[in-house]
Amino acid sequence: MLRLFHRCVRDHRVTTHLFLTARAFGANGVIYSGLRDSQLEDRILRTVDVWGGPFHVEFHENWKQAVANWKKKGGEVIHLTMYGLPLESAIKGIKDSSRDKLVIVGGAKVPLEVYELSDWNVSISNQPHSEVSALSIFLHELFEGKELSKAFKDAKIRIMPQRKGKKVVEL
Amino acid sequence: MLRLFHRCVRDHRVTTHLFLTARAFGANGVIYSGLRDSQLEDRILRTVDVWGGPFHVEFHENWKQAVANWKKKGGEVIHLTMYGLPLESAIKGIKDSSRDKLVIVGGAKVPLEVYELSDWNVSISNQPHSEVSALSIFLHELFEGKELSKAFKDAKIRIMPQRKGKKVVEL
Predict the structure, then answer these.
(1) Which one of A126, B25, B42, B155 is CB 3.0 to 4.6 Å from B147, fit for a cystine?
(2) What b/e readout covers A89-101, taking b as 16+ CB neighbours within 10 angstroms?
(3) B163 touching A (Cβ < 8 Å)
(4) B132-141, pLDDT tens digit by residue?
(5) What's the mean per-residue pLDDT of chain A?
(6) Mind listing the domains of chain B with CATH numbers?
(7) What's the CA gap between A66 and A72, in Å, rounded?
(8) Residue B29 confidence class, pLDDT cut points 50, 70, 90
C-alpha cells in the first residue's frame, strides 16, 4: 500500500498534476490537508471513473494527526525534499522495507516537523524543480518502471499506442 | 544538445515546473511559443543565476517555424504524448541517435500537425497524468539517472544532503 500525502496550500492546478501522477504511477490513493477543494476531488474521481482504479482521495483537516495515524498503524513516512539524502542511496533501503508507505510531497513551506516525523527525507537531485517531477521519479524508481504498464480496473476507455496520431477505444 | 519545446497556452505555474524540470534534469534550454511571459522568463533566469547553468530560454512567435528550423539544422523532434509509442520500446532508438533533440511537451490541445512533424511520438504510460511527469521520466530514462547528480556551472549556492533538516552552503 502506498499513498501520497500532500498539504494543498494554493495551487490546485499543480495539485491535480500531483494526484494524477500518483494514480498513474502506482499509488493506491492520496490523503491531503490544507485547502479543501471539491472541484479537485471531483476531477480526480471522474478520472478514476473513466480510466480505472482503484484510487482513493481522502481529506484530513489535521495533517499531523493523519501522519501520526499512519505511523501508529505501522506504516512508514517518506518525505521528498530537495534537502534530503539522494534517492540513489536511499532507494534500496526503501524498497527492502515491506511497510506501507506514505509519500509526503510538499512544495514550498513544508513545516520543519515533517523532516523530523519522516522515516526518510529523500532528494530527487538537490536542484529546484517540481514536486510533480520528484514524485514521478520516486515512483518510477520504486516500481522499477513497471508502473508505466500498470493495469487499472473498470476502465471505460483505453489508448492504443500509435506511431502518429491518436487512437482511443471504448471498453 | 537537448532543448525542451513548449507552447504555453495558459498556466504559467505548470510551465515554471516544466522549465525547472528541464533545467534540473539535463536539457540545455527551452524554446517556447504561445503566451509570452516575462515574469516566467525572469523566474527561470534567476534560478540559473543562483543555482547555475548553462540553461537558455528562448521565445518564438511561430512554433511551426521554430520546429522546422530545428529539423533543417539536422535535429530530431520527440513529442511526449499519452497517445504515442511506449517509452520502453522507443527509448533505445532515441538513445542510439546522436542527433540534437527537441522534446515537445504540450499538455492539452496539441495540434495534430505536431504528431506528423515529430520523429517520435512517445508515451510515458497511456494514462492521464502531467506533462511535468512525462518530461521527468523521459529525461531520467534518456540520461540513465545521471541527471540526478548533474553539476551546474557558476552556482552561488548548493545543498548539502541531510538525513533531517536543511543545509545550504554559499559557494
Answers:
(1) B25
(2) ebbeebeeeeeeb
(3) yes
(4) 999 999 999 9
(5) 94
(6) 2-170 (3.40.1280.10)
(7) 10
(8) very high
The interface residues of chain B toward chain A in range 22-61, judged by CB-CB distance below 8 A, are 23-25, 47, 51
Of A61, A62, A97, A60, nearest to A77 by C-alpha is: A97
Task: Determine contact: A127 vs chain B, CB below 8 A.
Answer: yes
Mean pLDDT of A57-61: 93
Contact B88 A145 (CB under 8 A): yes
If one compares A6 and A153, the residue with the highest pLDDT of the two is A153
How far CA B130 is from CA of A49, A139, A171, in Å, comes to: 18, 14, 24
pLDDT-derived band of residue A91, with 50, 70 and 90 as boundaries? very high
Nearest-CA neighbor of B57 among B32, B22, B24, B34? Answer: B32
d(CA A46, CA A61) in angstroms, rounded, equals: 23
Q: Please report which confidence band the pLDDT of residue A140 belongs to, taking 50, 70 and 90 as the band edges.
A: very high
- Give the C-alpha separation, A82 to A93, whole Å: 19
Q: Could you give the count of Cα atoms lying within 13 Å of B94 in the half-sphere of its Cβ? A: 27
CA distance A48 to A139: 19
Look up the ipTM and state it. 0.96
| Cis peptide upstream of residue A128 (ω within 30 degrees of 0) | no
pLDDT at A8 over 90: no
Mutate to test the interface with B, among A10, A19, A21 (most CBs of B within 10 A): A21
pTM as predicted? 0.96
